[in-house]
Design brief:
This protein is α+β, with helices and mostly antiparallel strands. The chain folds into 4 domains: 1-108, no CATH class; 230-389 and 396-412, no CATH class; 441-538, no CATH class; 551-624. It is 21% helix and 49% strand. The strands form 2 sheets. It has a 25-stranded mixed β-sheet. A hairpin with a 7-residue loop joins strand 2 and strand 3 (62-74). Helix 9 (541-585) packs antiparallel against helix 10 (595-624).
Length: 627
């Protein structure tokens, strides 16, 4: 091969050596090569031994190359050519590769049938420029694979016509990108594959202090890599412990409360996790412990389903905050990658109120009373909304409903309650014991509607309903039955004055041992204002709250309708673009296609359906609000 330098222009510093044996023949009229197939035959062999090649652009030399190949053609037409590399061996650096390959119909379908077996030192990939800047990779890959099919099948998406079988073994792999703090280490991973499935066996890994094991299978890998099909499969992932704060590059949020706000901050600087497209994966996961934000979870299990740029959480179970929880829902970046959409339904049982309040900034907004409440809480809640870039909820985007059940607790140092106790001069309301108190809530646009519920403290009975804002503002009505015996002198003077004022206006109010009062709480949680009237004199405070509830329900329905419309527009636009790209790939001119009319018809049908559902939902909410 060194003699080739005399008639092949090789670049400076290029080294080429080895031996070549070749023999070829051709027989028949030349017209066969130019026109149609005819009485023409050609063939020969091509053998190479001790091949060595290196140049300045090739970090690792190709050496010890031995290749045996034959070529046959019958009829003279190029597509009748058959190439058979019956045996080949090369070494890239110190990594040997043995392979064979048969090619037929190279012009029309490019049929191939081959086999390869070899070893690859993964660290060498960086030398070939196959890794992004800042990425390090080390370890060893050993593979033995057979493959057969055609380029024509791949071009038409017939990936099921590609036959593959073999296995691969990864050992001592360490991978770290420029965006990760530590390397993912895989001591060993065994992979077997065929044209339908890739099976992962006996895989162990470690990352950010977590010891991981995994197994399962993947499907449609070829179609996925070609960007034509979704990657399917089922994987099982088990971990001893996971610190998601480390995994996500965040630290536990610092949550502080002021007179009017509750803020949560995080050190996260990266964009939200974008769910990959073209996936249909089920990941069944278990973990002994998991840390996220400031909460420690244990005995975690559940399934993650990845599809259509969405992660569905299916029956995620865990123990936390002295209780248990069950979560179902979704996280999606199909519509908005900067502010991911979330939809969650959770069921918590027997959680510590104080720990729950300080653990979740969402609970601080939905249940600000939790700061002053000690005890056990159970709750069912469903919500939709968006996350910020730090992966914490965008509070004003949250819409939902649920219930809160206080199993047993003590409410103390709660400013609105202290205000009532002070104005009415009832000492026993300064701190109260509560049991089995259940209330139903709805929330939207930064406000929480609390439906009527009853609290009894000794012989004091209070029916409470109202609204509070995520900004800590309050607007509550209370119907109270209060024994006069519990009131001090200041409270009795207040009641006597209210009775005298009513009588002076010609409203007959009788003195009794039980006083029926109508209370109105406004202001903020930390600085409440209280107005007190006799029930027989004042406007029904709960009726006033009901009017506000109707406005709340309408605003909530409008908000949901607008969000659905915005999401529909984004999805519609993406679908239209995807359709145009598909047509363009087939060579169809989309410039003159009347896509708009068909699109508008679909949009009108969906919009009409959304309007009807919103209208029916609004009527139902108003009708059943105080049932």
């Amino acid at each position: 091969m060194t003699q080739l330098k005399s008639f092949l222009p090789l670049e400076k510093d290029t080294k080429l050596s080895g031996q070549v044996w070749a023999d070829a023949y051709a027989k028949g009229p030349l017209q066969s090569l130019q026109q149609m197939s005819g009485p023409f035959t050609a063939g020969g062999f091509f053998n190479v031994s001790n091949l060595y090649y290196s140049d300045k652009n090739l970090p690792q030399p190709i050496k010890n190359g031995n290749i045996k190949a034959t070529l046959q053609n019958s009829g003279g037409v190029a597509d009748n050519t058959a190439i058979d590399i019956s045996a080949a061996h090369i070494e890239i650096g110190n990594d040997p590769v043995d392979f064979s390959l048969k090619l037929t119909k190279p012009v029309t379908t490019m049929n191939f049938d081959g086999h390869a077996k070899g070893r690859l030192t993964l660290g060498n990939l960086k030398q070939f420029g196959m890794l992004p800047n800042g990425t390090t990779l080390s370890g060893l890959l050993q593979a033995d694979a057979g493959f057969a099919g055609s380029q024509a099948a791949i071009s038409k998406g017939g990936y099921d016509q590609i036959n593959m079988n073999g296995n691969a073994l990864l050992s001592n792999v360490a991978y770290q990108s420029s965006t990760t703090q530590e390397a993912l280490k895989i001591p060993n991973a065994k992979i077997s594959f065929n044209n339908k499935l890739i099976t992962l066996e006996n895989t162990t890994a470690s990352y950010m202090g977590s010891q991981l094991t995994a197994n399962g299978s993947l499907s449609n890998l070829i179609g996925y890599m070609a960007g034509k099909q979704s990657l399917g499969g089922n994987l099982n992932l088990n971990a001893d412990q996971i610190d998601l704060n480390k995994w996500m590059g965040t630290t536990a949020s610092n949550t502080t409360s002021t007179n009017t706000t509750t803020a949560s901050t995080s050190t996260a600087t990266t964009a939200p996790f974008a769910v990959p497209a073209n996936m249909n994966l089920n990941i069944h996961t278990t973990a002994n412990t998991l840390v996220y934000d400031k909460v420690n979870y244990s005995n975690i299990s559940g399934t993650l389903h990845l599809a259509d740029e969405k992660i569905e959480l299916q029956n995620i179970k865990a123990n936390a905050l002295d209780g248990s929880l069950l979560i179902n829902g979704s996280y999606a970046t199909r519509v908005n990658k900067e502010k991911p959409d979330i939809s969650l339904t959770y069921d918590i049982k027997d959680m510590d109120v104080q720990k729950t309040f300080y653990a979740f900034n969402t609970m601080q907004s939905l249940m600000p009373i939790g700061k002053f409440l000690a005890g056990k809480l159970s709750s069912q809640l469903s919500l939709t909304g968006n996350l910020k870039q730090d992966m914490f909820p965008l509070l004003n985007s949250l819409t939902g409903k649920g219930n809160l059940l206080l199993l047993k607790g003590v409410l103390a140092k709660f400013a609105p309650l202290e205000k009532i106790a002070s104005v009415l001069d009832v000492d026993r309301l300064q701190s109260i014991s509560l049991k089995d108190i259940k209330n139903y809530i709805e929330f939207s646009n930064g406000k929480v509607l609390v439906k009527p519920f009853t609290v009894k403290v000794d012989d004091i009975e209070m029916e409470i309903a109202g609204l509070h804002g995520f900004d800590q503002s309050i607007d509550y009505g209370i119907k109270m039955k209060l024994p006069r015996a519990y009131m001090g002198s200041k409270g009795n003077i207040l009641v006597n004055n209210l009775i005298s004022s009513a009588n002076a206006k010609g409203i007959p109010v009788k003195m009794s041992d039980i006083i029926n009062l109508s209370l109105k709480l406004t202001g903020t949680i930390s600085s409440p204002s209280l107005s007190v009237n006799l029930k027989d004199v004042a406007v029904d405070v709960l009726a006033d709250i009901k009017n506000q509830a109707e406005d709340f329900a309408k605003a909530k329905a409008d908000s949901l309708k607008q969000k659905a419309k915005d999401s529909l527009n984004v999805i519609k636009s993406k679908a239209e673009q995807k359709a145009k790209e598909a047509l363009a790939e087939k060579g169809i001119d989309t410039a003159n296609l009347n896509i708009k009319n068909a699109k508008d018809t679909i949009v009108k049908r969906v919009t009409d359906t959304l309007k009807k559902k919103a209208k029916d939902s609004l009527k139902s909410k108003i009708k059943k609000l105080f049932n």
